């Protein structure tokens, strides 16, 4: 499990670089590095489906973010209450972490999940659904309504993107710019 | 227990970025990092020691498969995360077109 710790620390370093660096393009690339490390972590944690999806989604999100930040650098603005703002934010985050630490004690130990619901899936999944990949059987059979809701949210978001990016009215036919999305 | 704690530190990095930064793109990056933390937490709770991925094969042993349910949930959440991120970026680009800046303190009049 040493590699898991190394990858997690790498992700945290990438996140801190992405947050603190001033150049926007470097920031986006750092967040991409964190996302690819997350994909490898999923692979180590025996979740190959999630790792593949994370890889594809990461690349798409990176392309959209680079398209948004291209040639739009902004000078770093630090006005008067810089210290107070940082102090309040750090205090809030520390309180959050302390409370979360106390909540984590109630979880089962790492490596021994409860699996009350999943026991049924593991036992009867192949016989009932005929899918050898149990994640596929959960998504498309046991919890198919979840997937239907996901598709609804996806298309709603796409409609939102198209209606936001579209120019007002239909006067200028030739200059309509379509935003890339799903 | 400390691996959960590292995962929460990753989430807290995203939370700090959302709360503190003024650039809209930085806020979006914070949201993405917080999403990473949440997804990783679900997958970590599903892991079982010396487990194997939940796919049947000829020599399959049901005893030590990892939990497939959080995998399915996270798979759904990742795709929804991409869609919402695209929506936020579209809104941010419209804001840049209208006001000429990404700084949220400079955007005074939020009218339609």
Provide the succession of SSEs of chain B. Answer: HHH
| Discrete helix count of chain B | 3
Main β sheet profile of chain A: none
- Mean model confidence by pLDDT of chain B: 85
Structural class of chain B: mainly alpha
Structure description:
The complex is a heterodimer of chains A (182) and B (112). Chain A is mainly alpha-helical. Chain A has two domains: 1-113; 115-182, no CATH class. Chain A is 71% helix and 0% strand. Chain A is built from seven helices and no strands. In chain A, α5 (116-129) crosses α6 (134-142). The longest helix of chain A is centred in the middle third of the chain and has 23 residues, at 82-104. Chain B is an all-alpha fold. Chain B has one domain (2-99): Helix Hairpins. Chain B has three helices and no strands. Chain B has helices spanning 2-20, 24-46, 68-99. Chain B is elongated and about 65 Å long. Chain B starts with a helix and ends in a 13-residue tail after the last helix. The mean pLDDT of chain B is 85. Classes of the chains: A mainly alpha (182), B mainly alpha (112). Chains A and B meet through α1, α2, α3, α4 and α5 of A and α1, α2 and α3 of B.
Helix/strand layout:
The complex is a heterodimer of chains A (182) and B (112).
Chain A: H1 2-20, H2 24-44, H3 48-69, H4 82-104, H5 116-129, H6 134-142, H7 144-165
Helix pairs in contact in A: 1-2, 2-3, 5-6, 6-7
Chain B: H1 2-20, H2 24-46, H3 68-99
Helix pairs in contact in B: 1-2, 2-3
In short:
The complex is a heterodimer of chains A (182) and B (112). In chain A, 71% of the residues lie in helices and 0% in strands.
